[in-house]
Design brief:
Blueprint: H1 5-10, H2 17-33, H3 53-56, H4 63-84, E1 89-92, E2 96-99, H5 100-106, E3 112-119, E4 124-129, H6 131-141, H7 154-161, H8 165-186, E5 193-200, E6 214-224, E7 227-236, H9 244-249, H10 263-270, E8 277-280, H11 288-292, E9 310-314, E10 317-327, E11 330-338
Antiparallel strand pairs: 1-6, 2-6, 3-4, 3-5, 4-7, 6-7, 8-9, 9-10, 10-11
């Protein structure tokens, strides 16, 4: 029996059997055109789409991460300056999203690569340092003079003899210093850090990701005594995917408890502001006649008991209590407590009083 006879009976008022046969043949041919043929040729109706790369590469900047990296750069500069005893300048460029294959092929050969185990998040990262800058920092760490030697080519030296045991330990020390500062810089955003795993000198030795894996690459420019170079901190975007909203918000919480990002630099500036501190021994009210009659050797009786703590004024406001004492030949006051909140009147600072004394 023809399989189209029931359909023809049902729709004989609209389509003839010949028309139904033609329609079914068209449906069959359309279905075959959407299937992959036996030779394995790719279906022309199927389009490959990179759900990760197409969304992230070139998507834009990570402003919050840039704030973290700026803080990290300052911390690294301070730490290396203290470790070497000489000024070191570090600046962070904006973080870039690159595919792993681009990062790996851009690495100079040879170069210093510290493979990192990320902490606080899952994954593996890299810390790279160009050889010439690396040897210059090593020299300073070992007490050498902060003078760049133009005759030293770090790449040639590393290619000829590799890294010695001492140099590997020094590079590991630098990586741990950076790791410590990174944990502090990231603390306002999320728990993040890394632990050095091993050292490599060729990009092909660190093929730990698929070529299309998207990486976050931050370039830190180092300058020390005329020698300039770059350090890269690289880790996969997938490891911080759960922090995407924070990384793109452009807002960094310095304390983790709601403090704005401007609080720390403002506090640093305020700490260098000078203030006037005044200690009041006591007070007395006398007439103008008595004041004019005062002579050398006269004693003015004050209203304060000798055992009463002295009031310490900061810019005219009562802030502290203390006891009088002598230290290194100077009159001094030993702070004992804060002044009660309900302490009375202000004392005008010397710079704003019209005249007179108390």
């Amino acid at each position: 029996m023809n399989i189209h006879e029931p359909m023809a009976a049902a729709f004989n008022e609209n389509l003839s059997p010949e028309e139904l046969d033609a329609l079914m043949e068209q449906i069959r041919s359309t279905g075959r055109s959407r299937e992959t043929d036996a030779t394995g040729t790719t279906n022309r109706d199927v389009i490959k789409y990179d759900l990760v790369g197409a969304k992230t590469v070139g998507r834009g900047k990570l402003p919050t991460l840039d704030l973290v990296n700026d803080r990290l750069a300052r911390s690294i500069a301070d730490t290396l300056s203290q470790a070497t005893g000489h000024p070191v300048s570090v600046r962070a460029a904006q973080a870039e999203l690159v595919k792993f294959v681009e990062f790996r092929t851009a690495l100079p050969s040879p170069t210093a690569i510290e493979v990192l185990e990320l902490q606080g998040v899952r994954g593996t990262g890299f810390l790279t340092l160009d050889p010439t800058t690396m040897y210059h920092v090593f020299d300073m760490l070992l007490g050498g003079l902060p003078t760049a030697n133009p005759s030293v080519n770090g790449s040639d030296l590393l290619k000829r003899r590799g890294l010695t045991t001492v140099e590997r330990r020094l590079l590991d020390r630098v990586a741990r210093l950076v790791a410590s500062e990174a944990a502090t810089a990231w603390s306002a955003l999320a728990p993040f850090g890394f632990q050095p795993l091993r050292i490599e000198t060729e990009g092909r030795q660190v093929a730990l990701f698929e070529d299309g894996e998207v990486m976050i690459d931050t370039v830190f420019s180092l300058e020390a005594a005329g020698c300039t170079g770059e350090m890269h901190l690289v880790f996969p975007l997938a490891s911080v995917r759960h922090l995407e909203k924070k990384l793109t918000s452009g807002i960094l919480d310095d304390s983790g408890e709601g403090a704005p990002s401007w609080l720390l630099p403002l506090t640093t500036v305020l700490r260098d502001v000078t203030v006037q501190v005044t200690v009041e021994l006591g007070r007395s009210v006398i007439s103008l006649r008595e004041l004019m009659a005062l002579q050398k050797g006269n004693i003015v009786r004050l209203d304060a008991d000798p055992s009463t703590p002295l009031m310490v004024y900061v810019e005219g406001s009562p802030k502290l209590l203390g006891n009088p004492m002598v230290m290194h030949g100077n009159n001094s006051v030993e702070i004992t407590s804060r002044a009660p909140a309900d302490t009375g009147e202000r004392m005008e600072p010397e710079a704003t009083r019209a005249g007179g004394s108390r």
